Amino acid sequence: MTDENGQPDPQSASPYAGRWVARLRGKIIAQGNTPEEARRAAQTHRHKESPEIVFMPAPFSFSPLMASVQEALPPGQEIYLVGGAVRDALLGRESHDLDFAVPAGGIKLARRIADKLKGAFYALDQERDTGRIVLVREDGTRTILDFATYRGTDIEADLRDRDFTINAIAFDLNSETIFDPLGGGKDLRAKIIRACTPQSLSDDPVRVLRAVRLAAGLGFQIDVETRQEMKQATEGLRSVSPERLRDELFRILDGPQPGTAVRALGMLGVLPHILPELPALKGVEQPTPHVHDVWTHTVAVLNQLEDILATLAPGYDPESTGDLFTGLLVMRLGRYREQFAAHFASSLNTDRSVRALLFFAALYHDVAKPACKTTGDDGRIRFWEHDEKGAEMAAARANALHLSNDEIHRLRLVIRNHMRIHFHSTRLENEHKTPSRKAIYRFFRDAGEAGVDLALLALADTRATYAHTLTQDTWTAELDICRILLENYWENPMESVSPPRLLDGNELMNEFKLKPGPRVGEILEAIREAQATGKVSTRDEALDFVREWIALSDTNVT
Q: What angle do CA 255, 290, 433 make, to 5 degrees?
C-alpha cells in the first residue's frame, strides 16, 4: 500500500483516493471523510490498537494560482480552499472562482495577498469579514479569489453552514489534504445533490435555484429528501432580493440544459415566486402547426436553442451530424461560426451574458399568448399582437429583476420582432419570394444587433413549433431567410443594412433652408432607405431625392 519512500501508493490506494484511512501494519482497516471519522471507524473493531491515520492522495489538481497564494501566506496561517473550486477540482473541471476560509481576518489577508499577486482588492463584505481579489489575464479572463472568516467557530462549523454537501468539502492548503465531514465526496461519486442540513434551504431559499442549476450543469440527481425541502422552501423566495434571484436565474440560463432546469423550476413550484407570468402558459392550446401547448412549446424552444447554438459554435465537428435538419443548419449557417462567437462575446452588462439574455427572451417570447388568445367564428385560435404585448410584459419583469436599460431594450427588440422572420419564410415557401432590399434594411433598422438573436430564436421556434412534423421544405425556407439576413448583415452591410451617410443634418438644413425638428430625421431616414434599395448612391442623387421628397411631401400636405 506504500511506495519505495513509504508514502501511500496512489495506484494501490485508488479505492480510497481523497479519503482518510486508518492503517495498521501497512493494512487499511477503516476509512472516513475526516481524520476523526477514520479513527472512530477503526476503534469499533480494533479499539485496543492505535492505527496510523493518513490521507490518501486524490488524482486532482488545482489552479496554478494556488501555489502563488501559498507562497504569499504568512507563516502558520490556517486556511482552506472551500466550495465549488474543490468540487470542480475533484471532478477534473477548471474553476475561475476560488473561495478561501480562514479563522479570522479575511479582509486583511485578502489585502496582503492582493499586494503580492498584484491584483485588484475589494472589501467585499465588512460584516462577514470577506475580501476579494480580481486577477485579469492578458486574454481578458478573470479569476476571483474570495477570503472569508469562518461562518462558525471552526472549519467544520463553516462547512455545515453551506448549501450542499458537494460544496462543503475543504482542502487544507498547509497539509494538502481533504476535510469532508458531510460526505460530499461520496455524493460527488454518486452524482447526488444533497442539502447539508434540513435547514439549509429554508435558511437561504435562493439555494433552491442553485440546486437546480448544479443538477443541470453537472448532470446530477437531486436527493429525494432535498427535493421535498426545496418545495417547502419556495415560499421564502418572496423575501429574497430581486438581484439575487436575477443572478441565480441568469446563471441557469447561461449554463447547460436551461430548458430542463426551467422545467424543473416549474415542477418545484418556483416560477410563481420569481417569474409569475409563466405558470399561465401551461395548458394554453395552440393551433396547427403547433404540436404543443404554450408552456411545453416554450421549454422546447429553450432546448432547441441550446442545440442550435452548440451546432453553430466554433469547434463543432460537422462530420458528427447525423440528423438531416442539423446537417442543413450546418450547410446554410456553419460558415458564420466566428461571427456568432463574436456576437455572444459582446457585452450589454459585465455581470451577465448576451447568451443568457437570449434564453430569457426565448422564455418570454410567447408570454402574452394567454392574454391575447381569441377563437374566431371559424373555430381557429389566434394570438393577435402577442409579440407587442409580450415585449412589454417581458420588459416589466426584466425591470423588476433590475436588469440594465440596455438589456431591457434588447429584450424588447427580440420579443417585439420575433414573428418577422416567420413571415418571410412562409412567403418564401409558399410564394417563392425572398425579402426585398427594403425589407432587409427595415429589419435591421428596427432590430440592429438583435437581428442575430432573432435569427437564432426563429430557428429554435420553428423546430419547437413543428417538432416531429417539420418538413424539409419548411426548415429550408426558414434557414434560407436567416442566411439572407445574416449574409447582408455580416458580408454586405454597406449595401442593405447600414449604407454610408451621404448627407448629415446640418448639410440638409443649410441646403434646403430647413429648421431643426423631426422632419430632418425623417428625410435622413428616407435617404438611407433609398440607398439600401439602390435608388440613391451618390451625394448628388441624395440631393435630387430630397428635392423630390420635399415636393411630394408639400403636395400631400396641401
A: 95
Q: Which residues of 269-289 are buried (b: 16+ CB within 10 A; e: fewer)?
A: bbbbbbbebbebbeebebeee
Q: Does 14 score more than 70 pLDDT?
A: no
CATH superfamily of 65-190: Beta Polymerase, domain 2 (3.30.460.10)
Helix (H), strand (E), coil (C) string for 463-512: HHHHHHHCCHHHHHHHHHHHHHHHHHHHCCHHHHCCCCCCCCHHHHHHHH
Helix or strand holding residue 107 (H, E): helix 106-117
Every domain of the chain and the residues it spans: 14-55, 65-190, 275-496, 505-557
pTM exceeds 0.85? yes
Whole-Å CA distances, 281 to 113, 296, 391: 51, 8, 16
Confidence label for 557 from pLDDT (cuts 50, 70 and 90): low
Residue with cell 456553419: 334
Sign of CA dihedral 327, 332, 338, 341: negative
Number of Cβ atoms within 10 Å of the Cβ of 186: 15
> β-strand 373-375 against 221-222: which pairing, if any?
unpaired
